Amino acid sequence: MNTEIKNPFLVSGYAGENYFCNRKKETDALLKNVNGNLNTTLFAIRRVGKTGLVKHVFHKLERQKKALCIYTDIFATKNLREFTNTLATAIYNKLPENRGLGKKITEFIKRLRPVISYDPLTGSPEVSVDFSKNSGYEKTIQQLFEFLNSQNTKIVIAIDEFQQITHYPEKNTEAFLRTHIQSLKNTVFIFCGSNHKLMYEMFNNAKRPFYASCANMNLDYIKTSDYAGFISKQFAAHRRKITPEAIEFILEWTYCHTYYTQFLCNRLYESAGKNCTLGDVLAVCEQIHNQEEGIYYQYRNMLTQSQWNLLKAVAIDERIHRPNGKDFIHKHKLGAISSINRSIESLLEKELIHKAVNVPEPYYMMNDKFLMRWLQRK
Ligand SMILES: Nc1ncnc2c1ncn2[C@@H]1O[C@H](COP(=O)(O)OP(=O)(O)O)[C@@H](O)[C@H]1O
Ligand SMILES: [Mg+2]
User: Fold this and answer.
1) Out of 3.30.1330.60, 3.40.50.1820, 3.40.640.10, 3.40.50.300, which CATH number does the structure's domain 23-218 have?
2) Could you state, in order of their start, the residue ranges of all structural domains in the chain?
3) What is the tens place of the pLDDT at every residue in 100-122?
4) Is any ligand 1 atom within 6 A of the Cβ of residue 71?
5) How far apart are the first and last CA of the chain?
6) Is the distance from CB of 222 to CB of 256 less than 8 angstroms?
7) How far is the CA of 206 from the centre of ligand 1 (A)?
8) What are the residue ranges in the chain where pLDDT is below 50?
């Protein structure tokens, strides 16, 4: 893995265990599911670390040469045809590392008469199958799966942002995928998703095809003590120091929400000297707010007055158990309950807030922890 990384706090991608904080329990659980041929659904709000965890598990599996791991993100796909092309591309891109199997897949994919183009930015190949010359994408997916299944190698396929399939115009997507996935012997799936409502419905509603077909895994924030150890270790590994108060403040300010914690640490690492103090952290928080402020004002223009007021109230109280409760409404001078309910729906839909439901007392909270802190100061 890359040893040339200068800043030990990544804000995108995965670069090996040295840059990855904990997730030991979750990693073990996922590895067990994979070894036991049990498909998994992985839920969490955005930026908590689903993709990172999958990459971490894949890194381990591939290092042990235990499985061929295929990762695909279907966020940008709009229908089953695009899904098929994205999956075929992910499989195709895996080839150079797996020559034996790769050659066979290439031959197989060639039979589908794909058009292979190259991404102008990254230069990596993209496969699109011309379905008019084949018997349709449904057949193609089936053939792709059957082909993978006929290999002696164990195959793990992670499909990120899986809730996207609920937006496809093809009505039978879930049933169709379920049927084919079910028949696979050697291939295990990890379905990741950040829209809890859509994912939960899909896998836990008895009327839906994927019902009870997978082990559910909810990814929570990293524990404060684990993250504190990680931050201090990353500084020490580069012969730097950071005070315990500074670390405590970082974790509280970012709520241990992985992306925000990583981002703050990344900026701090760039701007502070050998000894990092609380004062340095406060200066970086200020910088981040100054940089983001333009975007925050755009949000304000995008929202109605009552949505903005509600967002601010959620930011101030941080965790709201009853957004239409009397106390909350009075404290923040919010309007009628019906209007609050509409605003909640709208803020949820815009992904400015989320509802945490995997806890004894469900609550609403803001997604963007930097924006939350900014609104608290306004
Ligand atoms: N365990 C971890 N330790 C350190 N950084 C992590 C960890 N998990 C995720 N990250 C980083 O946090 C950010 C958000 O994680 P990501 O996996 O993209 O979240 P999600 O897929 O849930 O939206 C990324 O920049 C990623 O590099
Ligand atoms: Mg992700």
Assistant:
1) 3.40.50.300
2) 23-218, 223-299, 303-378
3) 665 666 666 666 666 777 777 77
4) no
5) 44
6) yes
7) 32
8) 1-3, 134
